[in-house]
């Protein structure tokens, strides 16, 4: 089969290599099972006004690193031929990626409806461009209705190509669905295509927001990173200190502030027996470091910054328990990464983790509740022998590994392709 993936965010761009990473994991799994896979990645960075201002020295985040001659070249290229100059091709780990850098022209508005119009306009050209280069896909798989799913519905109606949409956006839970798009979304959801969400909680949110979706959305959990799945696994050895690990962006939504306070409460009289490692970067780094020092935890809580994929595995393999104190997650991929290495997990009931965690592999606590999180930390520390690392790994791979995930996708694609024919 030939599968075209449409992500709503950029696909592994140079400046943000983790953007689109979940879609990339899926693309590699599909390709490794003897299928043709392609991606169209959209961005809308430049307008006439932003490029003209950059020439005058007033740069924005998209032009700040471009010199004058580069901006001048881009300015004339976009004005003379805005469509054909928007496309470039790349191969990422064997995946054909077509990049479309859409040009706003003289548009002044970045409002949701204007952005929708840009996606449809450039999506039409990009799809035709893709077919000429790589052939017509059998199935289009879009990720998130805003905006890739809306484009997929449009392409389905125009070209009669079957589509599948996976929803994993946090916009619904955070109330960030633009009112201007609700009618577009309702109309799109009325179309006949398989719609999946990465957690039962997200399904509930979608069905409550869009009544047309009652009993239509199905559960399709995220897949484990194949790199982590295939990384050599060794049974854990006991260390002198019990190590807790958290990996995530250092932002309020991820709950590291509550985690540090809970850690201090749980182990105030036995800090020499435990340690907490927090990996990631973000706006709260300085504030969290000050919090650590104020609580006299500098020797027991470490901020280790961003990690490579190999460093993630190494940190997990040195860990006794993984903690996810987020306020909201659509799924929580880091949880299955930890479980795949035989590490028990503690998480908040923040949306996605409830479908991953049960009493044999971890503990769930309410979000933003430092006292209950402290109790959970203490419980896992005291009951470490209750968790069977080999069983945790085996069950995780069975539920979220590449083989299991591909079988689900293959069935979905073949069924939709057959129905369409």
Would you give an account of this structure?
Strands 3-4-2-1-5-6-7-8 form an 8-stranded mixed beta sheet, with helices on both faces. It has a 6-stranded parallel beta sheet with strand order 11-10-9-12-13-14, with helices on both faces. Helix 2 (48-55) runs antiparallel to helix 3 (68-80). It is 42% helix and 18% strand. The chain has 421 residues and is of the alpha/beta class. The protein has 15 helices and 14 strands. It folds into 2 domains: 2-223 and 405-420, Glycogen Phosphorylase B (Rossmann fold); 226-399, 3-Layer(aba) Sandwich (Rossmann fold), CATH 3.40.50.2000.
Tally of individual domains: 2
* Average pLDDT reading: 93
Structural class: alpha/beta
Helix content: 40-55%
According to CATH, what is the class of the largest domain? Alpha Beta
What is the fold's blueprint, element by element?
Elements: E1 2-7, H1 21-32, E2 36-46, H2 48-55, H3 68-80, E3 87-92, E4 95-103, H4 112-134, E5 139-143, H5 145-159, E6 163-167, H6 182-189, E7 195-197, H7 200-209, E8 217-219, H8 226-230, E9 242-247, H9 256-266, E10 274-279, H10 285-294, E11 301-305, H11 309-317, E12 321-324, H12 333-339, E13 345-348, E14 362-365, H13 370-382, H14 389-400, H15 402-420
Parallel strand pairs: 1-2, 1-5, 2-4, 5-6, 6-7, 7-8, 9-10, 9-12, 10-11, 12-13, 13-14
Antiparallel strand pairs: 3-4
Helix pairs in contact: 2-3, 4-5, 9-13, 14-15
Provide keyphrases for this structure.
421 residues, alpha/beta, Rossmann fold, 2 domains, six-stranded parallel beta sheet, 14 strands
Short summary of the structure?
The chain is α/β, with parallel strands linked by helices.
